[in-house]
Amino acid sequence: MNISYNWLKDYLEFDLSPQQTADALTSIGLETGSVEEIQTIKGGLEGLVIGEILTCVKHPNSDHLSLTSVNIGDGSEPLKIVCGAPNVATGQKVIVATVGTKLYFGDDEITIKRSKIRGEESFGMICAEDEIGIGTSHDGIIVLPNNAVVGTLAKDYYNVKSDFVLEVDITPNRIDAASHYGVARDLAAYLKQAGKPHKLTKPSVNNFKIDKPQGGIDVVVENAEACPRYSGLTIRNVLVKESPDWLKNKLLLIGLRPINNIVDITNFILHETGHPMHAFDANHIDGNKIIIRTLPEGSKFITLDEQERKLNTNDLMICNANNGMCIAGVFGGLQSGVTEKTTDVFLESAYFNPTWVRKTARRHGLNTDSSFRFERGTDPNNTVYVLKRAAMLIKEIAGGEIEGNIRDIYPTKTENQQVVLPLKKVNSLIGKEISKETIKNILQSLEIEIENESADNLTLRIPTYRVDVTRDVDVIEDILRIYGYNNVDFSDSLKANLSYQTPTDRKHKLQTLVSEQLTASGFDEIMNNSLTKKSYYENNETYPLNRCVSLLNPLSNDLGVMRQTMLYGGLESIAYNRNRKHYDLHFYEFGNCYFFDAGRKREDKILSGHSEETYLGLWICGDSNSKNWAASQTETSVFQLKAHIENILKRMGFTKNQIIFEAIESDIYSTGMSIRTHQQQVGNFGIVSGNILKKFDIDTDVFFAELNWDTILKETTKSEVRFSEISKYPPVSRDLALLIDKSITFEQIEQVAKKSERKLLKEISLFDVYEGKNLPEGKKSYAVNFMLQDEEKTLNDKQIDAVMQKIRLNLEKELGAQLR
């Protein structure tokens, strides 16, 4: 939020420089990111001066250029300037940019230089409106009135103001400081505690008066839950016109575009007090009545940005007798706003329910200055003051008369919150003994009323504008930030305890171990948002939408649910990288996934509520290695991903015999397998379905694995590490060339072989696959290696042949395998 240094001083007299002010605000929790000197017109019109054209003749080498001599009042010879404007003429008073002057066109900057134009020298430039930033016209040069004084600086003629703008980062809980007076109020508390001279003055409304007690527009509130307070006022016979310079300059300095005097006043009040207002053209209020209510589902409404929006039944609307005029607290309507033709206005100053405003703003994807404040909570007891302040400014600037009494619908008054503050707790949490008098002084400077006082406690009443202060710890935080964090001394003593490893420590240690292993294998770690798109889970069998944890008030429609799987975040990262010509990708990510468990079964138990689990995601695509002299270019494959999975599980203490892969059917994978250890499923992997890849515009195969990290950690506690001496008896290798049906997998061969011989069979590996000519229809050939070893003696041929015969017969019996 931009805070004008000079505007701040309208309410607070103090002697700090702009940078000292920024440092003071940062020290009390209003972090100030930058201090920038700016002008109401970019560049401040430096180098521009009023001149008079003494002579003007046609350029000898151009039909559309003129040669002029211009007196700029500095006592020197008139400047020769080549000008291309069609309206240039002798005797005109004009704005001249001298050599060295910088002009700004949006974000572009040019410097005026001595130049030759079609053979004639030019020592400056005669300017148009858009070239110096005072307007948008480029039809010709600016022609000033005859009474303009030659030699006057343009910045003085146009009353350019310079100021320092402080960029204050307001945290969501400190909406009370989202205004110039709010910042001044906090800064005054700091100055009082620091013992520095200051004087805080709130603009007075004591001179407010009603010109005509009868009449005015009536107000009816039909939904008091969504609108606990609504105040309104009618002003007739106003003159809508351009705002005076002082008002335009204040808005321009903080980055707002002036519109007209009425709208500018409402914007001024917003940034002065932090309370949003809205001005309606009273002639568009049918029935002479304002009604605060909701409209039927699907009602159409055109907002100020000329967008047609369909309303929800929970969108609160400001209506006349026939139609909606404004989305309450969010955005005005196109038809009811104030224009140059407006003569009568109705001013709105209300307090809307923050939840209603927030949900409406999110539904329509709107984020306005008004909704920003209403959804965080404005002061319900400030509406009438704000209304009077705005009405007085309108009468001063636009004229008019106030008709009818203030309409103030406030059925249930919001009382100041009561908080009991234990003094011992203050010192305990802050870590320093602060005197009772100091605490009381700080509270009074924060406008917190001390209702009752005892030896141990203070009973306080919190102002209603401090919506973030509801507990004693909130008050203590306020005391500390004004007292000063730097004033709390460090202790000379050191308190420590013997360290021990907690389950969390073990989890992080093993996670780091695997991360280092993957990084060493060429993987890059990624981090994706746990919030993701709802559309990813629509029509999804593996991760159905009804199992998503949905957000009540999402930041955007694209971040509406918590992720159930790591898959989609990784695919977004792959798409992002491939769009930037990074094709060979190896990614991994540790992260949490979230589930709505109502009715879900696990271990024969029916779950309810929500759950959260940690997963490890792996993604590979593109080439596994780039082309070079030592090795040819090789594409990644699902088997490489499987090898990485096995290496991870081995690193976690699982043996090869404990890792089981089984084929699965899934709409996530075109081909996929589950991963089990100790009969517990720990994850799955496979080739990502083409239908999913199309949604991300990925035109290559992506291989993805997802491991349940929490389950793996539990399973590792069951894996015992045992010492085994290296056998002194040699292993024996035997190969079988098997003719099998195409539907048979290597995993089935492996399982049959292990059942056939449990003691001597140590390893099984597939080293060749053949499909094609000279094989029967529907058949394929597998070349399988079997490694046999006895830990106690050397195997002889008879034993080896008996084992191989048993394996061959069982493969033939159970799988129909034949020797080639």
Terminus-to-terminus distance: 80 Å
Task: State the helicity in percent bands.
Answer: 25-40%
Count, helices: 20
Structural class comes to alpha+beta
What is the average per-residue confidence, as pLDDT, rounded to a whole number? 91
Biggest sheet statistics: 7 strands, mixed
Major sheet strand order: 29-32-35-41-40-39-38
Q: Would you count the extended β strands for me?
A: 45
- What shape does the CA trace take? extended
Rg over alpha carbons: 39 Å
Strand content: 25-35%
Give unreliable regions as ranges.
Answer: none
Quick overview of this protein structure:
With 820 residues, this protein is an alpha+beta fold.
Structure description:
The chain is 25% helix and 29% strand. Strands 29-32-35-41-40-39-38 form a seven-stranded mixed beta sheet, sandwiched between helices. The chain has a five-stranded antiparallel beta sheet with strand order 6-5-4-7-12. The protein has a five-stranded mixed beta sheet with strand order 15-18-21-22-23. Helix 11 (423-430) crosses helix 13. The chain is extended.
Task: Write a concise keyword list for the protein shown above.
820 residues; alpha+beta; 5-stranded antiparallel sheet; 7-stranded mixed sheet; extended
Write the layout of secondary structure elements.
Blueprint: E1 2-4, H1 5-8, E2 12-13, H2 18-27, E3 32-39, E4 48-58, E5 66-71, E6 79-83, E7 93-98, E8 102-105, E9 108-111, E10 115-117, E11 120-122, E12 124-126, H3 129-132, H4 154-157, E13 162-168, H5 180-194, E14 199-200, E15 218-221, E16 229-236, H6 245-253, H7 261-273, E17 278-281, E18 289-294, E19 300-302, E20 308-310, E21 316-319, E22 324-327, E23 331-332, E24 345-351, H8 354-363, H9 369-374, H10 383-398, E25 401-409, E26 417-422, H11 423-430, H12 436-445, E27 449-453, E28 457-462, H13 472-483, H14 503-520, E29 524-525, E30 531-532, E31 561-562, H15 567-578, E32 585-596, E33 601-602, E34 605-606, E35 610-621, E36 623-625, E37 634-635, H16 638-651, E38 659-664, E39 669-677, E40 680-688, H17 690-695, E41 702-708, H18 709-716, E42 732-741, H19 746-756, E43 761-770, E44 779-788, H20 797-815, E45 818-819
Parallel strand pairs: 15-18, 29-32
Antiparallel strand pairs: 1-13, 2-14, 3-13, 4-5, 4-7, 5-6, 7-12, 8-9, 10-11, 16-24, 16-25, 17-24, 18-21, 19-20, 21-22, 22-23, 26-28, 27-28, 30-31, 32-35, 33-34, 35-41, 36-37, 38-39, 39-40, 40-41, 42-44, 42-45, 43-44
Helix pairs in contact: 5-12, 6-7, 7-10, 11-13, 19-20
